[in-house]
Design brief:
This protein is an alpha/beta fold and 319 residues long. Helices cover 38% and strands 13% of the residues. It contains ten helices and ten strands.
Length: 319
């Protein structure tokens, strides 16, 4: 898989990244460690060398599973992890990074990201200048190679950029969830900031495998996902019906089509999660699907069947 430069950093990433929220188990149902390890390994063997995790995914459990899966090929892997909103004071950032280094069994993290802005989830308000000072210090020490932010608005991204180089933004972004295009994406294009799209398949909705009337286990975070509810879900089914002929034409799945469309957008890469090896292998193959300008425009129009009816709230869940 051809790599891309992460922002202006020295880090080279794959356009499809392996997402490992589910490997942490918390807020997911029916996840087994053995499956997670095999799946992460399968992603690597299929050409996905960039793996995204976070300290909050199962309180470090996801990071430990990632290390178990690929620590032996660390020199060929790019680790992206995140510090949570409750650890953004100077000393807390340094301690969180050390924990993540230990969990990942490594002496450096390729991309270290602020997971949510301070104040999120009732966390303390910490000036972004203080958090960035800690991140810049970690970069000077060689413990991290690049700094990123996640779930930041354009305004928050611009503010953080005043205190250091931000090389990536991680927003929710898919054919069915496109708020990032309005304000943050133009800023990223102008400032050469890579976009790492999470939930690029709208938490599985873009796979087409969830039929009308599907009910999630209440413990599954998708039970609160706005896209799976009411008219949003019905419109998604209409859009999927229109996408199927295009995926058939390319002899690919709906999921691969959605990922191929996404990584063709400016500055954009896709973090695709997977429970099982065959899903990770299928995600990797999306990088081979080449869409024409006409097809990209057609897919764009189909996606708007869903997105034209959504409000401007960038949070995908009714938490």
């Amino acid at each position: 898989m051809e790599k891309r430069r992460l922002g202006t950093s020295t880090v080279q990433i794959t356009p499809i990244l392996m997402g490992t929220w589910q490997a942490g188990k918390k807020m997911w149902v029916g996840i087994e460690d053995a499956d997670s390890i095999k799946t992460i390994r399968a992603a690597y063997e299929a050409g996905i060398t960039t793996i995204d995790t976070a300290e909050v995914y199962g309180e470090g459990h996801s990071e430990q599973i990632v290390a178990e899966a690929v620590a032996d090929v660390r020199d060929r892997i790019q680790y992206a992890t995140k510090v949570f909103a409750n650890h953004l004071k100077y000393q807390q950032v340094l301690e969180a990074c050390d924990r993540s280094l230990k969990n990942l069994k490594t002496d450096y993290i390729d991309l270290y990201q602020i997971h949510w802005p301070s104040g999120a989830f009732n966390s303390d308000i910490v000036p972004i200048e203080e958090t960035m000072r800690a991140l810049n210090h970690l970069k000077e020490q060689g413990k991290i190679l690049a700094i990123g932010v996640s779930n930041f608005s354009r305004t928050q991204l611009a503010e953080a950029s005043q205190y250091g180089r931000i090389d990536s933004l991680q927003p929710p972004y898919s054919l069915f969830w496109r708020q990032v295009e309005k304000e943050a994406m133009p800023y990223c294009i102008d400032n050469n900031i890579s976009i790492l799209a999470y939930s690029p398949l709208a938490q599985g909705l873009l796979t087409g495998k969830f039929a009308p009337g599907h009910k999630f286990d209440p413990a599954d975070n998708r039970a609160k996902n706005k896209l799976f509810q009411g008219e949003n879900f019905e419109r998604a089914q209409q859009a999927l019906d229109k996408l199927r002929p295009i995926s058939d034409r390319h002899n690919c799945t709906l999921a691969q089509l959605a990922l191929a469309w996404l990584i063709a957008q400016p500055q954009t890469n896709a973090i695709a999660g997977a429970r099982y090896p065959e899903q990770a292998i299928a995600n990797a193959k999306a990088a081979e699907v080449k869409l024409s300008a006409e097809e990209l425009a057609e897919i764009d129009t189909i996606g708007r069947i869903v997105t034209d009816h959504l409000d401007d709230n960038s949070v995908m869940w009714n938490w």
